[in-house]
Design a protein that fits this description.
GO terms for molecular function: transferase activity. The protein folds into 2 domains: 118 residues, 2-Layer Sandwich (Phosphorylase Kinase, domain 1); 213 residues, Aminoglycoside phosphotransferase (APH), C-terminal lobe (Aminoglycoside 3'-phosphotransferase, Chain: A, domain 2), CATH 3.90.1200.10. Helix content is 39%, strand content 12%. The protein has a 5-stranded antiparallel beta sheet, with helices on both faces. Strands 6-9 form a two-stranded antiparallel ribbon. A two-stranded antiparallel ribbon has the order 7-8. The radius of gyration is 20 Å and the shape is globular.
Length: 390
């Protein structure tokens, strides 16, 4: 992802997790100027006289959904939510993925994301961007979308990853990074402890069995969709077999999980969270789903950095420290973390395979002889399966 201001300084959140860095794969077939014109026409139906100004598409615009950053200018009154009278409100439009752009996920449920953000805002003290409007009719912009406030701040970049030299987080002091880590783990603890389960039932994954079983089954169905008519991944299939052989005796509490729980989806004011972004992967499940994802995604970037000859940030988001901090905050010591970190790496591998096949679709890369070679963290996943990673 990219550094920059606002909830989509959060453009990191929009991009599929860990997608290849440079050159960026094609992300859309939409015309940004046409999108801006149609957005202004739609805004006028909600607030007569309103228009979008200063619209920009982030360079890191995502493949799982798209973002347009703009100022909402209205001569008479501000839009719903906090905004000084007569001052343009900084906004972010979150638009479902372009169906013509070989989407990363099979379905984009924008009402579900919008409802999840409202749920978290209503029941927690977490800084979730204020969502102004949801539009479910695809006639206006070609797909459903919602408009939310854009928070000022900065995001740990994905491109180049924050573990590389030359960005604000890498340049911070050890004490500042420690502060950011503690605040980020607190985000998970508060989310898991504060959202009442009854209010989040609409996020239950369909299927049978407990929420962890349903979650893994849904990921397997996603993998089947990714490889439909294309070479299958022996490594990913070995990963699913490993999960079956190492299933936790007790999957633990069921909570609302964020889904894409990583620091690249947080806008920071200094080193404190100012906005929590990207809720499209939210689901009910054990706490460790988020913990494993947060730990693993950092390790993905760290391993990539070390392989490139740099030291990286090995002390940041270290597994033992994240687990200890979370246990101290919640009273729930994380369990079965070998299972959950491997599951996170496996989920990431499926996304990366889809991103690679998307590049094949657009003629950016040739059809691979070895599909496992498309998985950047192949060696990591192999080491996890062999029990020699941690």
């Amino acid at each position: 992802m990219r550094p920059g201001p606002g909830p989509d300084a959060a453009p990191g959140a929009d991009r599929a997790p860990g997608a290849p860095a440079d050159p960026r794969p094609r992300t859309t077939t939409r015309d940004p100027e046409e999108l801006t014109r149609r957005l202004s026409a739609w805004l006028a139906t909600r607030l007569p006289g309103a228009r979008a100004t200063g619209a920009t598409v982030p360079a890191s615009n995502g493949m799982s959904s798209e973002t347009l950053l703009f100022d909402l200018d209205h001569p008479a009154a501000p839009p719903p939510g906090p905004a000084p009278d007569g001052v343009p409100t900084s906004c972010a439009l979150r638009l479902a993925a372009d169906p013509a752009a070989y989407t990363i996920f099979p379905r984009y449920d924008m009402p579900r994301q919008y409802r999840t953000m409202q749920l978290v805002a209503d029941h927690t003290d977490l800084p979730v961007p204020h969502a102004f409007w949801l539009e479910e009719d695809p006639a206006h912009l070609g797909a459903p979308f919602f408009v939310m406030a854009r928070a000022a701040g900065r995001v740990p970049p994905d491109v180049m990853p924050y573990t590389y030299e030359g960005n604000w987080l890498h340049d911070a002091s050890d004490a500042e990074r420690d502060r950011l880590e503690a605040a980020s783990v607190s985000v998970l603890a508060r989310l898991h402890d504060q959202v009442p389960l009854d209010a989040a039932k609409f996020l239950a994954t369909p299927g049978t069995g407990d929420p962890l079983r349903r979650h893994v089954d849904a990921q397997h169905a996603y993998y089947t969709w990714v490889v439909d008519g294309l070479p299958r991944s022996p490594l990913i299939e070995r990963g699913f077999a490993w999960l079956a052989d190492h299933w936790p005796d007790d999957p633990g509490d069921t909570v609302l999980t964020w889904g894409d729980a990583r620091i690249g989806n947080i806008v920071y004011d200094g080193f404190e969270p100012a906005a929590i972004l990207d809720w499209e992967m939210a689901a009910l499940g054990p706490r460790e789903l988020d913990l494993g994802w947060m730990i693993y995604l950092h390790r993905f970037f760290q391993d990539l950095t070390r392989s490139g000859g740099q030291h990286g940030l090995p002390e940041l988001l270290r597994r033992d420290r994240v687990e200890d901090r979370y246990a101290a905050l919640t009273g729930h010591p994380p369990r079965a973390m070998e299972f959950h970190t491997l599951y996170a790496a496996l989920r990431h591998a499926i996304v990366m395979l889809r991103v690679a096949y998307r590049q094949v679709h657009f003629g950016e890369v040739p059809v691979p002889a070895d599909p496992d070679g498309l998985i950047l963290h192949r060696d990591t996943l192999e080491a996890m399966l062999a029990g020699r990673y941690w």
